Amino acid sequence: MDHFADRGGALFAEDVDLTALADEVGTPLYVYSTATIERHYRVFAEALAGLNDPLIAYAVKANPNLSVIATLARLGAGADVVSEGEMRRALAAGVPPGRIVFSGVGKTRGEMAAALAAGIYQFNVEGEAELHVLSDVAVALGQTAAVALRVNPGVDAKTHAKISTGRAENKFGIAIDRVPHAYALAASLPGLRAVGVGAHIGSQLTDLAPLEATFALLGDLVARLRTAGLAVERVDLGGGLGIPYRTGDAAPPTPADYGALVARATARWDVRLMFEPGRMIVGNAGVLVTRVVTIKPGEARSFVVVDAAMNDLLRPALYGAWHDIRAVTPRGGTMVATIVGPVCETGDTFAEDRTIDRVDAGDLIAFMTAGAYGATMASTYNSRPLVPEVLVDGADWAIVRPREDIAAQLARDRIAPWLSNH
Ligand code: PLP
Question: Residue 359: pLDDT above 80?
Fold first, then answer.
């Protein structure tokens, strides 16, 4: 459920009229709803309420805007980060270091040192070589790093291939049979404290069965490690819960279904459980509002050309992802069109031959469910400035990232000295 709704023939974000907002801020723009973010976090937390002190570490990659993280930090969320930049964002937004988990398959020594200096809660380590490097860095700094091993369970998450992370051929994690050896190594290396294991098998999961299979494997693994005399005090179950993108599609499993599965599967583990939800917290909490530049009748199909492009919202071009499309102020009636941006790539297509609300040049349309993996994946391709982000809270709104200034974009480049004399 989200807080974007039609009010008297115009789309609102909570109590803010998107047409007035777009007129004031300009288009394209991302708009996020505080009430939706808060609701999704609370629903997720309530689904896990029966567990003993779970840590919900919001996956910052889904939407790293400082105000979004701060909204969640106020509710008690931790953060799952995969770079020094994300870690600094989490800290700047008020997430206590003791609730930050550092994941990722290619942490550098510099990132490890920065995270140790910040005093984060845990590193999720992806391989034995990384254990040696982290041990080295921790010893050099006179620190101890709490380490959980990311397990590659060899489970197909049955999601899009590009966001599946738990199969043997994926780059992520340590093959489950190899984990006891790696865990013993982690327990023996100086500067490390082996605290647990974890898995994240993919994103936008619409079936709980692969998670159930993964949890069963993790449960067996914990038992095996303990039998080998190794202490296990934490298990990180990752993120990945899918969300509804397309009106009319079967609803994905609810957080309550997920919570019930977790409770059942982990009842006898005697560990602190950790979670890394991203998309399910912020996905439906954001829209990308764009203006129709022109309608271009073509030989084979008609194009609606909008002022947003693949550089602003990459998911359709990257994954063939679906976003519902709504006119902000519907004129009545529908049309079939291919919705494209101005970037010089045929892949700059948001939807092909889609039946949408009838629109004309100058009208506003909204790409729904754009709060996760939207602005964060944006680039400046075609020298387009990064679009602004607005956070709404009831009738209040604030620009939480201004539109990038083209002069500032230019100023980041330098003319090489041998070119600057003419
Ligand atoms: N944790 C890890 C390690 C991830 O790689 C991701 C995303 O890919 C997430 C958590 C968040 O996943 P989601 O947004 O599907 O919940």
Answer: yes
Q: What is the pLDDT of residues 394-413, one digit of tens each?
A: 999 999 999 999 999 999 99
State residue 57 phi and psi, 5-degree precision: -105, 100
Residue extents of the structural domains in the chain: 4-32+283-411, 34-282
Exposed e or buried b for every residue in 5-35, given b needs 16+ CB within 10 A? eeeeebbbbbebbbbebbeebebbbbbbbbb
Cβ of residue 80 lying under 6 Å from some atom of ligand 1: yes
Q: Is 279 in the pocket of ligand 1 (CB under 6 A)?
A: yes
For residue range 194-208, what is the model confidence (pLDDT) as tens digits? 999 999 999 999 999
Q: Which residue has the least CA distance to atom 9 on ligand 1? A: 239
Residue-level pLDDT at 157: 75
User: Residue 226: what pLDDT?
Assistant: 98
Share of the chain above pLDDT 90, in %: 92
Q: What pLDDT score was predicted for residue 160?
A: 79
What phi, psi does 137 have (nearest 5°)? Answer: -65, -40
Cite the DSSP H helix spans in 147-270. 179-188, 209-227, 255-266
Q: What is the DSSP string of 255-286?
A: HHHHHHHHHHHHTT--SEEEE---HHHHGGGE
Q: Is the CB of 64 under 6 A from ligand 1?
A: no
Amino acid at 73: A
Distance between first and last Cα of the chain: 59
Which one of 2.60.40.10, 3.30.470.20, 3.60.150.10, 3.20.20.10 gives the CATH number of domain 34-282?
3.20.20.10
> What pLDDT, in 10s, does the model give residues 125-181?
999 999 999 999 999 999 999 999 999 999 887 777 777 777 777 788 899 999 999
Number of the ligand 1 atom closest to the C-alpha atom of 204: 15
> Which atom of ligand 1 is nearest the CA belonging to 239?
16
* Protein residue with its CA nearest to atom 7 in ligand 1: 203
- Tens digit of pLDDT for each residue in 221-247? 999 999 999 999 999 999 999 999 999
**CB 103 near ligand 1, within 6 Å:** yes
Residue 240: CB within 6 Å of ligand 1? Answer: yes
Name residues whose C-beta falls within 8 Å of residue 362's C-beta, 6 or more positions apart in sequence: 291, 292
**Residues taking part in catalysis:** 344
So what's the architecture of 4-32+283-411 in CATH? Beta Barrel (2.40)
Kindly give the number of the ligand 1 atom that is closest to the alpha carbon of 104: 3
pLDDT at position 422, please? 61
